[in-house]
Amino acid sequence: MNVIFTEHLLSVMIAIPFLGIAIIACVQDQEWIRRVALGSTMGDAVLSLVLLKEFDFSMQGMQFVERLAWMPTFNIQYAVGVDGISLLLVLLTTLLCPFCVLCSWNAITTRVRSFMAMILLVEGAMIVVFTALDLFLFFMLWEVTMIPMYFMIILWGGPQRIAAGIKFVLYSLSGSLILLLAILGLYVEGGRTFDILVLAEQTYSPDAQFWIFLAFFLAFAIKLPMLPFHTWLPDAHSEAPTAGSVILAGVLLKMGGYGFLRFCLPMFPEASVTFAPFILWLSVAGILYGGYMALAQSDLKKLVAYSSISHMGFVTLGIFVFNNHGIQGAILQMVNHGLRPALSFWPLVNCMTGPIAGRFKITVAYRNPCPGLWRSFVSFPWPHLDCRERATLLENFWFWSEHPLKVILWFCCPWEELFWLQRICSGCCNESFWVNPKAPPFPN
Fold it and tell me: How many C-beta atoms lie closer than 10 Å to residue 312's C-beta?
């Protein structure tokens, strides 16, 4: 392959969504707007596969590194690169965005240009977040990801979209302010540079590690989200349009886990060990709380939101056990969980249309709630992904070895998925207990 193209592959992938936005701004026909958005996202998906093919798995460290001076006075530069962690998250981002365009093809009929531009904007910003090697660049694009999600919620969301959008922004801005303080502290303590690779090689005092780690932890815990910073997610997820829900649960939540792996562990090892017991207990509490709340939901989107809280608990659990198996399991969990929202919502896009599409109140008021859902669900491998991710995580958690909670989690977690599938597709014997009288009728 052309060496020049390979050297600038990441920049090309970043530029394609913004180029698509520029083209969309000049196109009037709504059908062509959708085609341009789909072509842009598909182009990035193809290039991400090229990135995967050209990536050398035998090498350690960053690859495809590009650097360009931006603000030399403050040692700020445009610097991007990928390693094994960011490669998988870039792949996840570029593979989910074409699905978001497709599931919005007929569902979004108003402000089509703006909606497709929001998808492209969040895609380009997330690619930069996962590849940035400069803290200033990382923070700027971290903030950009919030803007399209906010407008997706308040302009194309459900009945409570305004409240959900405001709550999403307030939590995001709070986390961003804490993240900014952490970055400024790291800039001062690390020799007045924003270069992530240089900062990772510095040695920090115990006090500096404690406070900077705490700020990074709070910022990433809000984004993940961890218990008790989770309350924005169910509202934002349930009120967002289907494409927004897929982006939110599929990719945006992974920014928190990526932050733990990129900043907290390599830069602040002593503080990570100090905070680890507290984080592990929060993770276990989030797993149990999210799973319990998911079983009580009659709204599919809220069910996915609460289950996401539970699944992200496995991510932090794997990261802070400080071994290769746990970290590999956490990364696998992030990738698998990123695929699950798209695969979970696909049957709804296929089977349902109109105002109910994408929300789907679970009810058994009808003996045959939604014929065809069995066929749609079994045609996608999401149950197999879920079993594999939990098996990988729980099997490698050495600290569970003598704890009875391991057995409880091992046997209880798969039943959450089977219980949900049974409620949707077959109903329940005790109909009076599960009927939701406020649910809209299912289409014939």
Answer: 31
CA–CA gap between residue 240 and residue 108 (Å, rounded): 12
Chain centroid, CA 146 distance in Å:
13
Please check whether residue 18 is in contact with residue 124, taking contact to mean a CB–CB distance below 8 angstroms.
yes
pLDDT band per the 50, 70, 90 thresholds, residue 1: low
Two tokens, residue 74: 């403050």
Q: What is the pLDDT of residues 50-70, one digit of tens each?
A: 999 999 888 888 999 999 998
The mean pLDDT value for 163-171 works out to 93
What's the token pair of residue 202? 């510095």
* 3-state percent breakdown (helix, strand, coil) of the chain, nearest 5: 75, 5, 25
> How far is Cα 81 from Cα 131, in angstroms, rounded to an integer?
5
Token pair listed for 91? 């792949």
Report the SS3 class of residue 80.
strand
Yes or no: say if 424 and 382 are a contact pair by the CB < 8 Å rule: no
Neighbours of 8 (CB within 10 A): 16
DSSP conformational letter for 428: -
Which residues have C-beta within 8 Å of that of residue 332, sequence separation ≥ 6?
A: 388, 389, 392, 393
- What are the tens digits of pLDDT across the range 286-296? 999 988 888 88
Q: What is the pTM of this model?
A: 0.83
The tokens for 330 are: 């956490």
